[in-house]
Amino acid sequence: GTSDPYVKFKLGGKEVFRSKTIHKNLNPVWEEKTCILIDNTREPLYIKVFDYDFGLQDDFIGSAFLDLTSLELNRQTEVTLSLKDSHYPDHDLGSIVLTVLLAPREEQREAFQTQSLRLSDLHRKSQLWRGIVSITLIEGRELKAMDANGLSDPYVKFRMGHQKYKSKIMPKTLNPQWREQFDFHLYEERGGIIDITVWDKDAGKKDDFIGR
């Protein structure tokens, strides 16, 4: 009775952003931010929502178009879009909520300067990424016990360049079952190194390092 939704954004038939997958949730909260370069505001942003299926083809949930000409320059706007499926035009497929800011290029520097990546790099890289590395963190086996009870509270950190993800914490287990998915944008043709570290969560003190 649930889905594992993620969202793809397309401009001119080309994928420009893909969200994380939120597992077992019909009311997902992403809170993800991206900066997309637009050459022509008359071209709508195409938004497609899918249900992630491990090992199978992902199910299409619904899609919507965002008319960029309807946005006011330099004004942050909250937009609610109803999802549709052309095969089932009468079905209510839910909705997706975005906050959108349309800004001229020279002003984007100020809007996004809080991000760790310099915007010039972001512009360059948004044009250069060649694919997505999709990682499914399935389980841990026989991890080291770091706590006095002979167990651990493990979680995993993934880092590739400036991109970082952190898994859920699994309390009191040495054989955690995560079943979480993370997506990295791949910028170099030769790939890159993904740094994977495992930690034991400790309340009130520094988390213990289990391994890399």
Structure description:
The radius of gyration is 20 Å and the shape is elongated. It has helices spanning 105-111, 119-128, and strands at 5-11, 14-18, 45-51, 59-66, 77-82, 95-100, 131-139, 154-160, 163-166, 177-186, 195-200, 208-211. The protein contains 2 helices and 12 strands, in the order ββββββααββββββ. The protein has a 4-stranded antiparallel β-sheet, with no helix packed on it. A 4-stranded antiparallel β-sheet has the order 9-8-11-12, with no helix packed on it. Strands 5-6 form a two-stranded antiparallel sheet. The chain has 2 domains: 5-116, Immunoglobulin-like (Sandwich), CATH 2.60.40; 131-211, Immunoglobulin-like (Sandwich). The two termini are 36 Å apart.
Topology:
Elements (H helix, E strand, L loop, with lengths): L4 E7 L2 E5 L26 E7 L7 E8 L10 E6 L12 E6 L4 H7 L7 H10 L2 E9 L14 E7 L2 E4 L10 E10 L8 E6 L7 E4 L1
Antiparallel strand pairs: 1-2, 1-3, 3-4, 5-6, 7-10, 8-9, 8-11, 11-12
How would you briefly describe this protein structure?
By secondary structure, this protein is mainly beta. The chain contains 2 helices and 12 strands; from the N terminus they run E-E-E-E-E-E-H-H-E-E-E-E-E-E.
- Catalogue the unreliable spans: 112-117
* Count of discrete structural domains: 2
Do you know the CATH topology of the largest domain?
A: Immunoglobulin-like
CATH architecture of the largest domain: Sandwich
Name the helix and strand elements from N-terminus to C-terminus, one letter apiece: EEEEEEHHEEEEEE
- Provide mean pLDDT, rounded: 85
> Would you state the CATH class of the largest domain?
Mainly Beta
Helix content: under 10%
Tell me, what's the shape?
Answer: elongated
- In the sheet with the most strands, the strands line up as 2-1-3-4
Domain C2: 1-81, 113-212
Family: Belongs to the MCTP family.
Organism: Turnix velox
InterPro entries: C2_dom, C2_domain_sf
